[in-house]
Write a structure and sequence with these properties.
The chain is an all-alpha fold. It contains 18 helices and no strands. InterPro entries: O-antigen_ligase-rel_domated, WaaL-like.
Length: 477
């Protein structure tokens, strides 16, 4: 059973240890801030990608050293690359960071609140840097992805390897290096933890949670697919295709059920949108026929092989019960939410009524909108809705703008893979424990694909001129 009140950073160390650790963290952050003003944008983004994979967990729990370093890029990113202005999505993201900082006032744990604020600040930094790398040419982002390629391949290959050899996964999870590269809680695996990655049918690679690994690999595959379409050179092209193929295979290898549906449904939705803006009547007929076929297929499976749906139904029932707990708290805390860290106390109090006969497990709400409200209330919920839908709407607008272009073209493929990437995060987050930006692993890659979604270059012919504002600093990408 997981303890309700796990020892915090402040409670588990002596005053001298706290002072020394915080001093080291401040020195490290100052060094990263210095680098954020000096290094080229593509190098900063490449390092952020690498830290997204490796993270380096330390004394601050889920607030990894990697997340701290990415968030520390914000001063330099804002000063150097923020002068071109902010679109509405970026302004909403900044407002969310400010509101999350305010909501610290009613948080149960300072660490939980700091984690949420740092996630948002890291996304602001990465979005600004990624936007700069593609301002003049997509090759800056391509170069950053090239830097991260070996680490992404390592994560994807480990997922596949661990799926076939669960004993090897157990050996890694109980090794000292896992305490650094894998999320807190990995130390409980040796004691028989029920963490879902400790399952012969699931594998997370370097990540503790297989579902989180699945989301990460899917979005990364979409970003690398976009990059492969930018004519990066023969060797880089084949390298990126290898990353896409291995990542998509590993996404299924995690054992998560989401990619089984998303890998089919989201590309079909993208194709539907691409066809609908050109041939609305054809798209309508095909859409109705496809929906009818999907309903019929589900009904057939339920009649012939009902066991195939049992686990899905059980999972959905668990989620429904958790959402009922969230809804029950709304009348009393409708504006402020529960506060960062207070969900743990709430689910502990409601557990026996919600899951009678089961031992206590501190399940999160398993819905990104419910999580946003629970953490920081109504304002955070509304901002999360807008931030989740914004990139999807941006891609759909590009699809409409390029409705006169050929359907079978490089631009259409770009629009398809970026639509799938930004939509996957929302789709996954409706039933799992993530935020609108995924988690600390996904932040740099999500920031990059969102920058692509809002880029004027998305969907354009490569010989088509893109007007951009004059640079206000020397070219850093």
């Amino acid at each position: 059973m997981i303890l309700v009140a796990e020892p915090s950073f402040l409670d588990s160390r002596t005053p001298l240890e706290i002072v020394l650790i915080l001093a080291a963290a401040l020195v490290g952050a100052a060094f990263v801030v210095f680098l954020s003003f000096r290094l080229p944008a593509r190098t900063l983004l490449g390092v952020a990608f690498v830290l997204g994979v490796l993270q380096f967990f330390g004394p601050f729990g889920f607030t990894s050293l990697g997340l701290l370093a990415i968030a520390a890029l914000l001063p330099g990113a804002a000063w150097r690359f923020g002068r071109d202005g902010a679109n509405l999505w970026l302004w909403l993201l900044i407002v969310l960071a400010v509101w999350q900082t305010v909501s610290v006032l009613w948080a149960d744990k300072l660490g939980s609140a700091a984690y949420g604020v740092l996630l948002t600040e890291a996304l602001v930094a990465v979005f600004l840097i990624a936007r700069e790398t593609i301002r003049e040419s997509p090759q800056g982002l391509v170069s950053a992805l090239r830097i991260a390629s070996p680490f992404v391949l390592l994560q994807a290959l480990l997922v596949s390897l661990f799926r076939f050899f669960p004993d090897l996964e157990y050996a890694y999870l109980t090794s000292p290096i896992a305490r650094i590269l894998t999320e807190p809680g990995v130390e409980l695996i040796a004691d028989g933890s029920t963490e879902n990655v400790n399952d012969v049918f699931k594998a997370g690679g370097l990540f503790l949670n297989a579902n989180t690994a699945s989301l990460f690999l899917a979005v990364v595959a979409c970003l690398y697919a976009w990059a492969a379409l930018q004519r990066p050179g023969r060797r880089t092209f084949w390298l990126f295709l290898a990353v896409v193929a291995v990542s998509l295979d590993a996404t299924l290898g995690t054992g998560s059920k989401t990619p089984i549906v998303a890998m089919v449904a989201l590309p079909l939705l993208a194709v539907f949108a691409l066809v609908a803006v050109r041939r609305p009547l054809v798209a309508l007929v095909v859409g109705v026929a496809g929906a009818a076929a999907a309903v019929g297929g589900i009904a057939l499976i339920a009649a012939v092989r009902p066991r195939l749906l049992d686990e899905t139904i059980r999972t959905l029932d668990e989620r429904r019960r958790l959402w009922d707990v969230v809804l029950a708290q709304v009348p009393e805390h409708w504006f402020t939410g529960l506060g960062f860290g207070n969900w743990r106390l709430t689910i502990a109090e409601e557990w026996r009524m919600t899951f009678p006969g089961r031992g206590l497990q501190l399940f999160p709400p398993h819905n990104l909108f419910s999580q946003a409200w629970a953490d920081a209330g109504l304002v955070a919920l509304l901002l999360t809705v807008a931030l989740s839908l914004g990139p999807i709407v941006a891609v759909l607008r590009r699809i409409w703008r390029h409705r006169d272009d050929r359907l079978l073209s490089r631009g259409s493929l770009e629009l398809l893979v970026v639509f799938v990437g930004v939509s996957w995060v929302l789709t996954h987050g409706m039933l799992d424990t993530t935020t609108f930006l995924g988690d600390n692993h996904l932040v740099p890659f999500f920031g990059a694909i969102v920058a692509v979604a809002f880029s004027e270059r998305l969907g354009r012919r490569q010989d088509e001129r893109v007007d951009s504002p004059p640079a206000v600093v020397s070219q850093a990408a």
